[in-house]
Amino acid sequence: MxxxxxxxxxxxxxxxxxxxxxxxxxxxxxxxxxxxxxATRNLKVVPQGWQNFVEMIILWLHDQIDAMMGxxxxxxxxxxxxxxxxxxxxxxxxxxxxxxSPTNDLNTTLGLALLVVCIVxxxxxxxxxxxxxxxxxxxxxxxxxxxxIEEIAKPITLAFxxxxxxxxxxxxxxxxxxxxxxxxxxxSVAWLAFSxxxxxxxxxxxTMLSMAYLANAVxxxxxx
Amino acid sequence: MIEINAxxxxxxxxxxxxxxxxxxxxxxxxxxxxxxxxxxxxxxxxKAEADxxxxxxxxxxxxxxxxxxxxxxxDIVDKANLTARQEHDAxxxxxxxxxxxxxxxxxxxxxxxxxxxxxxxxxxxxxxxxAAAGKVVSKNIDTxxxxxxxxxxxxxxxxxxxxxxx
Lengths: 224, 166
Description:
The complex is a heterodimer of chains A (224) and B (166). With 224 residues, chain A is mainly alpha-helical. Chain A contains seven helices and two strands. Chain A has one domain. In chain A, strand 1 and strand 2 form a beta hairpin. Chain B is rod-shaped.
């Protein structure tokens, strides 16, 4: 059983790593790649098996991307598809006994959130240049403070929302198992089912919000 | 519980690796496939539309051809009917003429026969009359006188006396 909140760490090249998180991340990556390989091993025009699953995800995300980001969005589609599949796999493997979600570590979620925000700002500068910087000073230069807080809040909320949801789910599973006698599995099972739902929803929310932020940077402005 | 350490860098790196791998392994082939599928569907729909148009065109052509054929057939039948009628009329007229001609021939023959019969009878009457006259008169008249008498007798004969022969 886990010791809640205590993480096993290793030192490598003078840096500290949470080894369990890394292992679980690699496992999640492995699962995603495996599913992707299974799905694309034998691609057919008429889809079958896993191909349906991956196609469904890609088509759905394509729809969302087209709706939110416009024509430049397709460039980011692999990133968003990868983000969604990785988060889904990460969130769900935490529900397997003896495993933990990579996303129950703030390092993972904050890393992803910072990556998203970095991409947002880089693309914003690339596509819009001066306009992108100028829009932080609108409608009046005083607003730069509020805008900055908003920009800083973005990765933090993104990271903590996912981290909190997943960690809470896992903690409660452990707590419930300790709290209830073994012949009374209903609360744990119910919570497990709810956690599956939460895992999917949080993956969707993280992906959707990332898309919304990216859309801000990428979308062609018709107003200006 | 929420200490930030170098794991954050590792996770960013991990995720970037994942995205690159996923893009190569899954996203590109699937996206290409989806593109192919939508292309195929679009092509199929376009082809179906073109086929439908072609079929309609062909049907229209066939209908026109059929109508033409009907018209031609009707023309041929009409012409045949006309020809048959003309030939029939001609044949009837020919037959009538033939009948008329045969009637005339027959009438002419009848006339001839009657005339000949009349001539025969006339000569027989002459002979009989001469014989009768010879016996009755019993008087010798010279040949000249005789011929004169006979001719007189004969010229006095006329057809009206033999009206019952007609």
